Amino acid sequence: MTGNRLRAEGLVLTYEDRTVVDGLDLEIPDGQVTVVIGPNACGKSTLLRALGRLLKPRRGAVLLDGTELSRIPTRRVAQKIGLLPQTPVPPEGITVSELVTRGRQPHHRWWQQWTEADEKAVGEAMDRTATADLAERLIDELSGGQRQRAWIAMALAQDTDLLLLDEPTTYLDIAHQVEVLDLVRQLNRERGRTVVAVLHDLNQAARYADHLIAMKAGRIVAQGAPSDIITADLVHEVFGLTSVVVPDPVTGGPLVVPGAPWQCG
Amino acid sequence: MTIRPSGFSVLRAGRGSFLLHRRAALVATVLGAALAVTAVVYLCVGESFVSPTEVVRVLAGRPSPDEFVVGTLRMPRLVVGLLAGAAFGLAGAFIQTVARNPLASPDVIGVTHGAGAATVAAMTFGVTAHTALPYVAILGGTAAAALVYVFAWRRGLHATRFVLIGIGISVALGSLTQLFVTKGDYLVAQQAKVWLTGSLNGRGYDHAVPLAVISLVLMPALFWAARAQRTVSFDDDTATALGVRLGRVRLCLIVLGVVLASVATGATGPVDFVALLAPQIARRLTRTAQIPLVGSALTGALIMAVADLLARKLFSPIELPVGVFTAAVGAPYLMWLIVRTRSRSGGAA
Q1: How many contacts does A have with B, using Cβ atoms within 8 A?
Q2: Is B68 within the bounds of a domain?
Q3: Is B242 within 8 Å of chain A by CB?
Q4: Which of A199, A213, B66, B227 would give a disulfide with A223, using CB separation of 3.0 to 4.6 Å?
Q5: How far is A97 from chain B (nearest CA, A)?
Q6: Contact predicate A237/A220, CB 8 Å
Q7: Does the residue B85 lie in any domain?
Q8: Better-predicted residue by pLDDT, A173 or B295
């Protein structure tokens, strides 16, 4: 067993009586950006929820530093794993700066609501996400891109070594998508933070992932470096899509170009 | 540049640091002042007018010719009203926070109707001692809320299910109350009707005792609740990700709300709409991201004092039950709230 901090063993995940993930083993490589891809309803978001203890496994376990996640007090988990759900709902009438401050929740004590560490973490999170100018604005009145940056700032203020992001680029236009993913990458490179993100866009996944996990119907089809595993065959197996894989003109990595439209299913 | 959440000041004491919402603090101060003025006016006005100077003399404990009217007749009633109003306001704040719905109140989760059914049943079976009835109401309210909680619990507490089951059980208990009213004799029925409207008529210090005791006991819990409240206003996933034990926090907040609402109902009967109105008014004043607790308590007390002042004076010498006035103000507000919520969320409230 290697020393990776976050692992899953024999994971069985169900909603009510529907089994979504059945007997999955997984290691999240430390200090890397791991991206999970797969078609709709393949269980990728469900897997992320389990890694972030939002969903309790029916069988098997998620292990953090060798301890079963469900045995660690949730507040302790929150000091180590940050998680941003796909569609978080803010408290009504909250300002950006207050939202980011809530990311400090797991570090607070009732008599310590604003320490130097809080000030530093919140300030840095807002700088990095360029939300400092929005500090006094209400979340409700922001554009989709600004709002997403505020949420990411909150997750960053939590100051955890592991960060789980569920489709962080949904609702964003292409420029903001790239901005968010660059930010994620930068956090990983400069801070050595381990990131796990669920992404929809295969090419963004290929570009930003160190470690790619391709899922279909609740199991892992392939995992590894994008350049090692992305092939036309894999794309067909996972998404049922005919495509050509060419070198990305910018990075040299794999770039998936869908086949002619009349051939798509 | 120092960074802090906008609108907040940081208070430091040794290693401790506290965030204070400036506007909420200001609102609390203003409400406190308004409450003091209202209390003095309340004590002046009645069947006979007592000058404010005399009222202040009585309050300061100095001898005064009006000591009986102010200190013995009006003061206990005011104290019960203020305490019950504050308790209703807080109960509403907790219940609305957990239900994430501005329309939620102790009515909705069975407390009011549970207390009502238990009290009217006790009256029918011959319990009329007004020292016993508050405790009967507290028992009935808590039991009904527990019943709602048990039925609504299914692998966690879902806000919508909680509210719907609460409404169902309330309706059932309402029918039960009607049954007792119909079965009981004429005098009991009349007494029950007055109680069910919510009234401060004839309330004395013995009604204030359970209220005061419970308020004191719960004081420390309010510090905890003020912080816990901030985290449950997120969606479930985000709150859990922030390390909140959501199920436990919600249960504790509901228990606080139920106890406060039951005790207040025990003292005054179900005074409509105070628990619904106070938190929403307070929040509009403070503009905080969650319902302010101090503000809700003060607003609740203020509503109660003003409503009872009107109830006593407006149709003098007839003293109306205070519940009539809170309902007269509350019902239109509720309708406005429903219309507004619908137009904002396209009908899916």
Answers
A1: 110
A2: yes
A3: yes
A4: A213
A5: 5
A6: no
A7: yes
A8: B295
Query: Is B7 among the domain residues?
Result: no
Predicted confidence band of residue B348 (pLDDT cuts 50, 70, 90):
very low
Amino acid at A104: R
B6 touching A, CB under 8 A? yes
Q: Write down the ipTM of this complex.
A: 0.90
Number of domain units in chain B? 1
Measured between CA atoms, how close is B18 to chain A, in angstroms? 5
C-alpha distances out from residue A90 to A94, A103, A128, A215, Å: 7, 12, 21, 30
Whether B9 is in a domain gets the answer: no
A145 vs chain B: nearest CA distance in angstroms?
A: 19
Question: Please, what sign has the CA dihedral across residues A238, A239, A241, A245?
Answer: negative
Of B17, B230, B237, the CB nearest to A114: B17
Q: Do B4 and A95 touch (CB under 8 A)?
A: no
Structural domain of B53:
19-340
Q: Do the Cβ atoms of B234 and A122 come within 8 Å?
A: no
A144 close to A90: Cβ distance less than 8 angstroms: no
Report pLDDT digits (tens) over B189-239: 888 888 888 888 888 888 888 889 988 999 889 888 988 888 888 988 999
Average pLDDT along chain A, 265 residues, taken 10 residues at a time: 84 90 94 95 94 94 94 94 93 92 89 88 91 92 89 94 93 87 91 93 94 95 95 94 92 89 56
Q: Are B137 and B115 in contact (CB under 8 A)?
A: yes
Question: What CATH number corresponds to the domain at position B284?
Answer: 1.10.3470.10
CB contact under 8 A, B6 and A95: yes
Half-sphere exposure of A101 (CA within 13 A, CB side): 25
Please judge whether B238 and A101 are an interchain contact, meaning their C-beta atoms are less than 8 angstroms apart: no
Query: Which chain B positions have a beta carbon within 8 Å of A79's beta carbon?
Result: 243
- List CB contacts (< 8 A) between A111 and chain B: 15-18
